[in-house]
Amino acid sequence: MILVQNLICEFPDGEGKKLRALSVPDFSLEDGGLAVITGPSGTGKTTFLHCLSGMLTPSYGDIVIDTVQLTNLSMEERCRFRAEKVGYVFQKPLLLSWLTVRENIQLSAKLAGRSVKDDEIEGLLSDVGLSGMGNRRTAHLSGGQQQRVAFLRAVVRRPSLLLADEPTASLDEENGRRLMDILLEYQRKSGATLLCATHDKRVMDRFPKRYDVQKGEFLPC
Question: Per DSSP, which regions of the chain are E strands?
Answer without folding.
Answer: 2-12, 18-29, 34-38, 60-65, 68-69, 86-89, 161-165, 193-197, 210-214, 217-220
